[in-house]
Amino acid sequence: MLTPSSALDQVASLISAATRAGADAADAIYVCNASTQVQVRLGALEDVERSEGEEIGLRLFVGRRSASVSSSDLSADALAALVDRAIAMAREAPEDKWSGLAPADRLLSGPLAEVEADDGADPVPADLRARALAAEDAARAVAGVTNSEGASASASRSVFSLGTSYGFAGGYSTSGYGSSASVIAGEGLGMQRDYGYHSSRHLSGLEDPAAIGRRAGDRAVARLNPGKLASGQMPVVFDPRVGSSLLGHLTGAITGPAISRRTSFLLERLGQPVFAPGITIRDDPHRLRGLRSKPFDGEGLPTAPTDIIADGVLTGWLLDSASARQLGLAPTGHAVRGVGGPPGAGTSNLYMMPGALPPEELIADIRLGLFVTELIGQGVNGVTGDYSRGASGFVIRDGAIAEPVAEITIAGNLKDMFLALTPANDLEFRRASDVPTIRIEGMMVAGA
């Protein structure tokens, strides 16, 4: 694995070779990932995996024609052949008047923002095994748990470096740690499965494995003997671990490519209320130790915290340079990309600001409703906003969580759902997209 600085040397050399070969502009990306994972099951070691891989990608432009190529072979001969192949491909590609590097005057200059993305720790496999065993032991100790699908612990490190022929050069490294457990409760046809997990940039921030395991066991047992729920229109409350999927539907509808292609259910809503007053949704790429924190985007533009939704109002689109040109706007620092292909647009650490009420008070006036802990399927239409997904969870009866239910479908339209949404005050930063407990009024529930 190269260091960020040595990776930048490799990237700069590749860009120079591309411009010497006839490219009018070019950028290059180096990505390396190394990870170790230990898997246990029923108290015994099941697997130890170690993976390491590095790849470099080159995107170059000949006039308005472009090509992208990548290689996992970083030898001088392989990279020379990579450049030749990219030049030949670009000369045969169709013209695209919107393509090109990010504007030079918008590229990040000066020092990179410190996001504390790498703690430098390197736990040995024995330490990871101990974490995995502790998680599984705690899960299996929960009364009613009858079997285990296993537990795991992992550690990883990544390096990302980006350079452009317009003068940008930047790189950083990240560390990552995770622990999970998945267990089964009950017997025969009545068995239920659930899980617990946590991920962290710093090893010191990783949740105690016993707590992860207990949560997995408690959730599996709580799901035993699910019943049915009568169909009807009622409030639906989303557990935070599934409610965050609503943010994914939002961001998918406000990315530049969706807007430029006119394939978004929010196409005409810029500057208008999309959520109820008081709702704020923020993208924060500079959160210390955030799972997707980064000092610059996939094109070398500076990143900054942004309120995508402010007091319920949609404030703007998420734009890479190509979609910004097509829309006649400026790129927003939300470009995301891999080593191959052009950039797209996306978010970093996305979250919904908490509301005023604790979850208990949020549901206190619900006579009959549904608390969703699992979503199934992908029945969401990004063009119309129509939403229909399988679900399981618990009945809310007379203001309290009651018996488990399964084989339910919840449906609505995201435009209506967003406006009818109320967040609780229990926001925790545990994922790349985080929400508190969410209540949505008037959804259609199809049960028994």
Name the descriptors.
448 residues, alpha+beta, PmbA/TldD fold, 5-stranded mixed beta barrel, 22% helix
Helix-strand layout with pairing:
Elements: H1 4-20, E1 25-41, E2 44-62, E3 65-71, H2 76-92, H3 125-140, E4 145-164, E5 169-185, E6 192-200, H4 209-222, E7 232-238, H5 240-243, H6 245-254, H7 256-260, E8 281-283, E9 306-310, E10 313-314, H8 321-327, E11 335-336, E12 344-345, E13 350-352, H9 359-362, E14 368-376, E15 386-397, E16 400-413, H10 414-419, E17 421-423, E18 433-434, E19 438-446
Parallel strand pairs: 7-14, 13-18
Antiparallel strand pairs: 1-2, 1-4, 2-3, 4-5, 5-6, 7-19, 8-9, 8-13, 9-10, 11-12, 14-15, 15-16, 16-19, 17-19
Helix pairs in contact: 3-4
Structure write-up:
By secondary structure, the protein is an alpha+beta fold. It has helices at residues 4-20, 76-92, 125-140, 209-222, 240-243, 245-254, 256-260, 321-327, 359-362, 414-419; strands at 25-41, 44-62, 65-71, 145-164, 169-185, 192-200, 232-238, 281-283, 306-310, 313-314, 335-336, 344-345, 350-352, 368-376, 386-397, 400-413, 421-423, 433-434, 438-446. Helices cover 22% and strands 36% of the residues. It is globular, with a radius of gyration of 24 Å. It has a 6-stranded antiparallel sheet with strand order 3-2-1-4-5-6. The chain has 2 domains: 4-221, 2-Layer Sandwich (PmbA/TldD fold), CATH 3.30.2290.10; 226-448, no CATH class. It contains 10 helices and 19 strands.
